[in-house]
Write a structure and sequence with these properties.
The protein has 8 helices and 6 strands. With 188 residues, the chain is an alpha+beta fold. The chain has a 6-stranded antiparallel sheet with strand order 2-3-4-5-1-6, with helices on both faces. Helix 4 (104-117) packs antiparallel against helix 5, helix 6 (139-151) packs antiparallel against helix 7 and helix 7 packs antiparallel against helix 8. The longest helix is centred in the last third of the chain and has 15 residues, at 172-186. The protein is elongated.
Amino acid sequence: MPQDLIKLVLDPGVTRHEFRRLASVLGWTVRGFGKDLPDEPFEEAWGTRGQRHEVHFVEDPFVGLSYLLLDSADREPVLDEVKDRLHVWSVEETIGSLRDAPSPQLRAERVRILALCAPSDQEEASVAAFGSAAQDPSEEVRESVVFAGAYLPGWSALREILGRMAASDASPAIRADAQAMLETLDTP
């Protein structure tokens, strides 16, 4: 993902239909639709009012979440419009929610949200959250940490966490998945 591309992770309940209603209210126009294929991310492009900005809505079946991609200068008005109308996850909110999540399913979902909303440059609070999640008693949560590697390939600290998981996780399946993720990340 290019450095100047912003990813806004939407609340898990936001569907493409809800986003389309929002885009319509904001006066945005469709620029293109992707193919709706099983097990493939669905993407559609929208031009903001005046066609000054392009916003991509993505439904990602791999993480079970939707997000927006925005790549343009002077994008603050668009960010504000979206944030005023839809819940968008921040790193800080996600880390707090991960820490407080009462169930393994919610903790796993928060790990996936963090993988999407974390900056492309490694930062310590997220690394610590991934490290804690890698030691969660739930295999579902630990598996989400493995999956985070695909979304943050440049994070050396996450690779170290995956290395520890590949070497010593209690689950043979997670050890194998962590090793496979490391091999995938090392493939040019």
